[in-house]
Input
Amino acid sequence: MEVADLKILLVDDDTFILKLLTKMLMNQGLKYITACDNGADALDKMNDPVTCPDLILLDLNMPNMDGIEFVRYLVERHYQGSLVLVSGEDERMLKTAEKLVHAHKIPMLGYLHKPVTPDKLIEIINKWTPSPERSQSSATKRIYGADDLQQAITNLELVNYYQPKVAVKTGDVIGVETLVRWQHPTDGLIFPDQFISTAEKHGLINDLTSLVLSQAFSQARIWHEQGYLLRVAINVSMDNLASLNFQDLVVNLAIENGLSPQNIVLEVTESQLMGPDARVPLEVLTRLRLKRFHLSIDDFGTGHSSMAQLRDIPFDELKIDQGFVHRAWADETLRAIYDASLSMAKQLGMEVVAEGVADKQDWNFLRRTGCDYGQGNFISKPILAADFIHWLAEWQDRVNQELLTDSV
Ligand code: C2E
Ligand code: CA
Ligand code: CA
Output
């Protein structure tokens, strides 16, 4: 691909800058330019294959969703393109954003300081090179449509994977998080970032969640019957909580499978809780909590209203987002956010799960800092239920041999 064929997304709250950058790029022969004056619109553009960019020019200082939060969303969506950060004078923001971008291996072409000059802009754009691996996966990565997904749900093509959560002090396995995948008849194993947003947008999320729930609960029952008293966590979308029927579904499925509510965890992503009318979700969550189901605030640290949610909803568990866990031992900024999340959760009497524990150094860091539970590829990748017992035996060996010594 030539530079002139690049699809470029500009994200800046200043519409004058948007116009200016667009003009400068067009003068250089670039044709496919999309401009957004806020992060939410930009994320929408990314869902559309026509406007999904190869390169994003991102302003850091924006009201509502700032550039750092936007980068977090890019990571969640496994963004395959490159990034240029555009900033006024806030060096601290720039540094933090740069670290996040690097930690997640998004290729960054550089910074543009405002005011942006045409020379600098072109110099940076010309640094763009296609990475064979990434461009191939971006070509094969598609967001599936509603009809395909509906059929997948009807044909029971969704498969639950389970990722263990373990106690950091003892290595005990306390539970698993259910992560759905789609075993596509021709395309292979498809990850949730390629179909959850479709489900939410096209009213399929309740069907999807019902299927995930019923498979997870019957698996929990099997584990309990085999003597593994695992807590099973499910990811709940905000749209699931928009209806009062959701709690009946959860309660009935728990009863059918003989599960006690304490062994079921509902993980809710905080940024999803910010909808215009939060009353129904609040009511649903509070009633489930009254019945002793466990509530977990997911991806903590990535949204804006984390504190408000902690105030309004009686969560039992807080999951520190993987962006603030992996390599927090090596990075002051990540460490500060990690520490603050941990101590806030403790003060509120919540249990803390650190997500994204990816290596031994992360694991030792959790042990040093007194985090309750860990989850991540270092412990176990998400696995099929059929592989659980085999993994458990291996895990117990690792725990006995090396994971509880205090070598750092
Ligand atoms: P999440 O709830 O934050 O789930 C954790 C994600 O991090 C999973 O990605 C998991 O595979 C990945 N992960 C775990 N350990 C590591 C690690 O050490 N390093 C790295 N880099 N990644 C790690 P996955 O399975 O692709 O799921 C992505 C997201 O999709 C989930 O994020 C969750 O928000 C959503 N999701 C998954 N299943 C469901 C579901 O049944 N319903 C709904 N509504 N959302 C779901
Ligand atoms: Ca989760
Ligand atoms: Ca999470």
Remarks:
- The CA atoms of residues 147 and 282 lie 31 Å apart.
